[in-house]
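User: Can you help me understand a structure? I only have the sequence.
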Amino acid sequence: MIDVKTILTAIQKRRVLSFTYEGKQRTADPYILGYDDKNQLRLSAVQRSGGSGPGFRTYKVEGLSALQMTELHFSGSHPDYYPRDPYFERVLGQV
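Assistant: Let's start by predicting it. Here is the structure, written out as tokens:
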């Protein structure tokens, strides 16, 4: 079970997350945590490494494992970040 507080703290403090998703180790800058239109908890983040390469990705929170907040910081300003992302029905936390 993923600790949602860790994700929310990382968003608030602008700290990079490290986790495993679909069998691959990844690091990402977390931007939005919330529920989609199917009431599934999702994380929107800029992937730094792992998986299919860098860029914004949306992850099912239930699919995350080995989640850790790293000591690395990120700016919180990304050219592709859209704070009013219509994908999210209900936002729990965001940059």
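Now, to help you interpret it: The chain has a mean pLDDT of 95. The chain has one domain: 4-94. Let me know which part you'd like to focus on.
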